[in-house]
Design goal:
It is a single chain. With 427 residues, this protein is an alpha/beta fold. It folds into two domains: 172 residues, Alpha-Beta Complex (Aspartate Aminotransferase, domain 1), CATH 3.90.1150; 233 residues, Aspartate Aminotransferase, domain 2. Helix content is 43%, strand content 12%. The protein has 16 helices and 13 strands. The chain has a seven-stranded mixed sheet, sandwiched between helices. Strands 9-10-13-12 form a four-stranded antiparallel sheet. A two-stranded parallel sheet has the order 1-11. A hairpin with a 7-residue loop joins β9 and β10.
C-alpha cells in the first residue's frame, strides 16, 4: 500500500486511514452514519478487515478502473516488478546504499536538478521532511510561528507534531477551502517566520491558485520578512495548471518537499530541496529525528522508476481527469440523485472530489457491488466529511494510466449503473 507510516509517532489510526486514502485506500469500514466501526472493538475490527478484503478483491478483479493503486498488488508481484525494472534506471551491480550514499545520493541529485535547487536530502517520510524544514527555518528566521492553511497536512494528519515535537506554533491566514490570498497574508495580525503552502491543497479538493495568485502570495510573504516553504507532495502534477515547468514553480519558494509514493508509485520516501546550508542542517536533524536509515535502496529505486516512467505521463492524466470530471457531472445530472458536486470543476490536477447526499455505507456498498457485478470500478472509498454531517459523503477520484481508456460515454454509463445500485440500497 502507500506509505501509511508517513505519520508522526503516535498518530491516531483515523489520520493514517485518511492519508492512505490518497490512493483510494481505506483501512476502516464505515458504519451506518459514516462512523469508524473500529470504535466497536474487536468485532468492528474484524468487520472492517473483511470489508477491506472484499473491496481489494473487487478492485483487483475489475477489468475497468481509473487507477491501479500499487498498494493493491501482492508483495511478491511488486518485488518481481522491481527486480525486473530496476536496471533500467540504475546500475544494480553497484553496492546498496549505506546511510544515504550511493543510489540515495543519486536520487537527491536528480530531484534537486528537476526542481532547480542546488541541494536536496532524502527522508523516509514526508512528515519528517517538513517537520525538519519548518524547524530549520524557524531557527534561521528567529520566529517559530508558521502561517499555513488549517487543512494543510501538518494541521490535519500529524497529531500536532509541529508543536509537540518541534516547538512551533501555527496561524491561519484563511479558513476558506483554498490557498490564502496575498491580501490575507498581508493582513495576518501577527508576525510569522515561514509561510507554508500546500500545492495542491488536498483536503480542500486538490485545489490550486492561479499562477498570478501564487506569485502574489509569495511576494506578500516576502514583504512580511518571511520565508516560503512548499508542501509539494503532489507538486509533480501541478505543471499543467500553472503552465510552467517544475523548476519555475518550485523556484518561487525557499524550500520544497516532494513525495515519491503519492503520484509516482514509489514505495515510500520524500526529498527536501533547498539551499545547501539548509539541506546540510536538515541532514543533522534527520539523524536526530530517527531518519538516518541504514539502507533504503528499494524505496530509492521505485522513486527513480517513478521519475522515469510516471512523471512524463502526469500531464496526460490531468488532461483526461477533466474529461472524466465533466462526464461524471453529466451522468449525475441525468440521474435521479437529488444533489451532487464534482469539485473542483474542472479539476486542477488528476485528482478531484465527488460529493453525494448519502451515507458512506450506502455508497461503498454500491461501489463494491458495481465492481463485483460488472468488473467496472468507478469509485473506490466514500467517506463522511470531517464535520461529520450525516447523510453526506465524498470520494476522491484519481485518473491515472488505466483511466485514459475511459471515454466520456463510458463514464456516463458507469454513473448510471452506480446510481441504480445506490437507489436500490437507499430504498
Amino acid at each position: 500500500m502507500g506509505e501509511t507510516s508517513e505519520q508522526a509517532g503516535g498518530t491516531d489510526r483515523a489520520d493514517r486511514v485518511h492519508e492512505a486514502e490518497q490512493d483510494g485506500e481505506k483501512l476502516h469500514a464505515a458504519g451506518p452514519d459514516g462512523e469508524d466501526v473500529h470504535a466497536a472493538g474487536p468485532d468492528g475490527e474484524k468487520t472492517a478487515q473483511a470489508a477491506r478484503r472484499r473491496r481489494l478483491a473487487a478492485w483487483w478483479a475489475s477489468e475497468r478502473v481509473m487507477v491501479r493503486a500499487p498498494m493493491d498488488r501482492p508483495m511478491g508481484e511488486r518485488l518481481a516488478a522491481l527486480a525486473a525494472d530496476a536496471g533500467s534506471v540504475y546500475d544494480v551491480d553497484e553496492q546498496p546504499d549505506l546511510y544515504g550514499d550511493g543510489i540515495v545520493a543519486e536520487l537527491e541529485r536528480r530531484v534537486a536538478a528537476l526542481l532547480g535547487f542546488p541541494a536536496a536530502v532524502f527522508f523516509p517520510t514526508g512528515t519528517m521532511a517538513q517537520q525538519v524544514a519548518l524547524r530549520c527555518w524557524a531557527g534561521r528566521t528567529g520566529n517559530s510561528t508558521v502561517a499555513l492553511h488549517p487543512l494543510a497536512h501538518p494541521e490535519v494528519h500529524e497529531a500536532g507534531a509541529l508543536s509537540v515535537v518541534s516547538g512551533l506554533r501555527t496561524v491561519h491566514p484563511t479558513k476558506e477551502p483554498r490557498l490564502p490570498t496575498a491580501g490575507e497574508i498581508q493582513d495576518l495580525a501577527e508576525p510569522f517566520g515561514t509561510l507554508m503552502l500546500e500545492l495542491p491543497l488536498r483536503d480542500a479538493g486538490f485545489v490550486l491558485p492561479s499562477w498570478d495568485e501564487l506569485v502574489a502570495a509569495v511576494d506578500a510573504a516576502r514583504e512580511r520578512d518571511a520565508v516560503v516553504h512548499v508542501d509539494g507532495a503532489r507538486l509533480w502534477e501541478c505543471t499543467p495548471h500553472f503552465e510552467r515547468p517544475l523548476a519555475e514553480i518550485a523556484g518561487l519558494a525557499d524550500s520544497v518537499y516532494v513525495s515519491f509514493y503519492k503520484s509516482l508509485n514509489g514505495l515510500s520516501g520524500a526529498v527536501l530541496a533547498g539551499p545547501p546550508e539548509l539541506v546540510e542542517e536538515a541532514r543533522v536533524w534527520r539523524h536526530r529525528y530517527g531518519g538516518q536509515v541504514f539502507q533504503q535502496y528499494p524505496a530509492a529505486l521505485t522513486a527513480l522508476l517513478g521519475l522515469e516512467r510516471e512523471l512524463p505521463k502526469l500531464p496526460s492524466y490531468v488532461a483526461h481527469a477533466r474529461v472524466v470530471a465533466t462526464a461524471l457531472a453529466e451522468g449525475f445530472a441525468a440521474s435521479a440523485v437529488p444533489w451532487f458536486r464534482v469539485h473542483p470543476e474542472p479539476p486542477h490536477t488528476h485528482q478531484f472530489q465527488v460529493w453525494l447526499p448519502y451515507a458512506p455505507d450506502v455508497l461503498n456498498e454500491a461501489a463494491v457491488r458495481q465492481a463485483e457485478e460488472t468488473k467496472t470500478a468507478l469509485f473506490r472509498v466514500w467517506s463522511a466529511p470531517a464535520a461529520g454531517i450525516r447523510g453526506l459523503s465524498f470520494t476522491e477520484v484519481t485518473v491515472a494510466e488505466p483511466g485514459l481508456e475511459w471515454t466520456a460515454e463510458e463514464v456516463r454509463a458507469a454513473v448510471e449503473e452506480f446510481v441504480t445500485r445506490v437507489l436500490e440500497a437507499h430504498s
